[in-house]
Design the sequence.
């Protein structure tokens, strides 16, 4: 589970310092998401849970006549996004909760998100708020992870922790895998006022490490962020060294051509406001 206070605090700060590597980890997915988001003209777009802003910035550059608003509850991430977008005058980044944010004079015709919508404590209420603030026939396009079993970058890395320190799993609790079940997602969106809900399964290379020492890069990435980082930081020296040895062995098996790329599986979900 990753909740609001995590994103407002420690996890948000980590992601703000790691945006280059988190953007890289999603690189195999981002173009597909942007292609779907940009398949129709855009005048006003909201990027929900925009993090350090890569999707907002890409839309702002590709659609210079559109206005883009990126929303996130993490001040640290919005700070990073503002720095990255300082030269663009058609993108604005706001510290705001998508569950209650409404733009005055800004009814979006696109609501987009790369993995920023699975953390709502009340997803029906949050998506209903987004639908009510949107123009008629607004498109919703977001990505989220499919089942954990299809995402070994998360399950295998977590499984390398000592057995008594495995993270607890509640499939419906806010967190990276909360939208893995398409029936659940369709139910949430339909109840919230969205229609024509459709799912595209996208398998992508989750890039954990790259460069001359891609293995060290991937190791430090997983010790900083992701499914095992917080627990690994609490291990004593011996347990941590044993975990790192297991992690290295797992990552080495996926090292090829200066790249550690693991299997990632996502949905790109689309819908329309009624
Ligand atoms: C996995 S990160 C994805 C960030 C970014 N979209 C990206 O692809 O790099 C999830 C993001 O959702 C944000 N978030 C979580 N709950 C939110 C809410 N209720 N309103 C706005 N943002 C939220 C978090 O702060 C975090 O930046």
Sequence:
């Amino acid at each position: 589970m990753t909740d609001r206070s995590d994103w407002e605090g420690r996890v948000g700060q980590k992601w703000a310092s790691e945006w280059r590597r988190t953007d890289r980890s999603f690189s195999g997915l981002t173009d597909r998401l942007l292609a779907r988001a940009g398949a129709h003209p855009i005048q006003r777009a909201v990027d929900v849970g925009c993090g350090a802003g890569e999707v907002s910035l890409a839309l702002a550059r590709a659609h210079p006549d559109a206005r883009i608003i990126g929303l996130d509850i993490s001040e640290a991430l919005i700070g990073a996004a503002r720095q990255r977008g300082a030269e663009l005058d058609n993108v604005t980044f706001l510290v705001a909760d998508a569950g209650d944010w409404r733009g005055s004079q800004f009814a979006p015709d696109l609501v987009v998100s790369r993995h920023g919508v699975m953390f709502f404590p009340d997803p029906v209420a949050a998506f209903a708020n987004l639908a009510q603030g949107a123009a008629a026939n607004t498109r919703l396009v977001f990505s989220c992870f499919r089942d954990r079993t299809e995402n070994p970058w998360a399950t295998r890395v977590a499984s390398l922790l000592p057995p008594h320190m495995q993270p607890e799993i509640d499939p419906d609790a806010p967190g990276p895998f909360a939208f893995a079940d398409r029936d659940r997602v369709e139910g949430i969106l339909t109840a919230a006022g969205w229609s024509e809900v459709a799912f595209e399964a996208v398998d992508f290379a989750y890039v954990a490490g790259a460069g001359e020492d891609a293995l060290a890069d991937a190791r430090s990435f997983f010790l900083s962020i992701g499914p095992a980082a917080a627990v690994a930081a609490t291990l004593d020296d011996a347990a941590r060294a044993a975990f790192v040895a297991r992690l290295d062995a797992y990552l080495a098996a996926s090292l090829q051509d200066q790249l550690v790329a693991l299997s990632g599986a996502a949905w790109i979900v689309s819908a329309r406001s009624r």
